Structures are given as structure tokens and as C-alpha cells.
Amino acid sequence: MSSKIIFTQAAIYRLQQLASLVYRHTGNRFRLSSFEGQIQLLRAAAATVHPDVQTCCEHLAGELYPQQLSLLNRSGINLMPMSELTKQAG
């Protein structure tokens, strides 16, 4: 992926929460100060089976703009906001 994503302050907070949860479950750390580290974290988190990590991913997705979600989706990182999950379930 060649484009950087500029995260809002709320999204950065969610990204930090996500990094903490992924570390707790896997022991893997990701360098959030680098774009590649952020992408690696998102890939690992999107592929997890842990419900708390999935919920955090959903909250992070809710903080992102549609263009950001689309860019991540094109890179194989499928994050879906909780509001979209609710629509699909109902």
C-alpha cells in the first residue's frame, strides 16, 4: 500500500487499544509510529478470532472515514464499523 492514512485523535486512541489487545493475546508488538507497523497491526487484528480484538476493530472502523476504510479494504484489511454489522444482522 503506497498511501498513508492520517488517523484522527480518536482513531489513534483505538489503534493503541488494539495494539494492547493484540499484544495481550499474541505477544506480538507493532511499531505504531510507522505506517508499516500500523498496517501489520491492522492485518493481524482483522484476522483474529478473539472477540475483544474484533470489537476493538469495529470501534476503530467506526472512527475511520469511508475513504480510509476503502483504502484498507483494497489492501486486504476488512474492517467494518459496528453500525454496518448491525445493519447486516437486521
Kindly describe this structure.
Helices cover 67% and strands 0% of the residues. It contains 5 helices and no strands. Helix 1 packs across helix 2. The chain has helices at residues 9-26, 35-46, 51-63, 66-74, 82-89. By secondary structure, it is mainly alpha-helical. The N and C termini lie far apart (34 Å).
- Please give the largest β-sheet: none
Distance between the termini: 34 Å
Q: Indicate the mean pLDDT.
A: 88
Shape: globular
- Residue runs with pLDDT of under 50 for 5 or more positions: none
Tell me the number of strands.
0
Strand content: under 5%
Task: Give the SSE order as H and E letters.
Answer: HHHHH
- Which percent bin holds the helix content? 55-70%
Q: Please work out how many helical segments DSSP would assign.
A: 5
Category by helix and strand content: mainly alpha
Rg over CA atoms: 12 Å
What are the SSEs and their pairings?
Blueprint: H1 9-26, H2 35-46, H3 51-63, H4 66-74, H5 82-89
Helix pairs in contact: 1-2, 1-3
Features:
90 residues, mainly alpha
Outline:
Helices cover 67% and strands 0% of the residues.
